[in-house]
Amino acid sequence: xxxxxxxxxxxxxxxxxxxxxxxxxxxxxxxxxxxxxxxxxxxxxxxxxxxxxxxxxxxxxxxxxxxxxxxxxxxxxxxxxxxxxxxxxxxxxxxxxxxxxxxxxxxxxxxxxxxxxxxxxxxxxxxxxxxxxxxxxxxxxxxxxxxxxxxxxxxxxxxxxxxxxxxxxxxxxxxxxxxxxxxxxxxxxxxxxxxxxxxxxxxxxxxxxxxxxxxxxxxxxxxxxxxxxxxxxxxxxxxxx
Length: 241
Hints:
- The protein is mostly helical.
- It is built from eight helices and no strands.
- The chain has helices at residues 3-44, 47-78, 82-115, 122-148, 151-159, 161-181, 186-218, 234-240.
- Residues 234-241 have low confidence and may be disordered.
């Protein structure tokens, strides 16, 4: 390959990568908004707000498909190697996790429709909002880690997932107590627990993104096994209590 051809290929790849990075940033911003809107709908028990969250998920799905198609085309035509290939693969992995976070926000929107008009214990709702705030911070950190190619930021976010799990476990026990003391809260309680579980799963997807960023930068996977503080299971308790 001539020097001119090599330089052209490099410039073309850099252009593709900038486009993919821009698309991923757009998808990340949309995902953050979906989380915020889903928690707002849940806080207000507003079914119309919940429906808007459900409808907005289509845009995330479309972005994920566009990124996937562009990434595959770039790999096929540019044949990137080493760190360049890792960056494309990381973008694919991150887009997939962002799409899954969007699905979880949509699930919360669906639950809101089922609990509209219900009275929510303030302490339980504070716990849900605290979880969501931590997830948003983690998501912002891992996206910033990708943009800055900073494995230390990614590792810090990865290690904080245990805090989200801990709040989820505490919230789970609290809502379960409400349900046992007042059987009339059973339906609402199950909806709220599934919402909390969706938020906890969002945290898991942010740690997946952190792992993708770490591998992209360092060229090796995180060696430590992720710690999980969540010792509960919504389904096992709901159906076996």
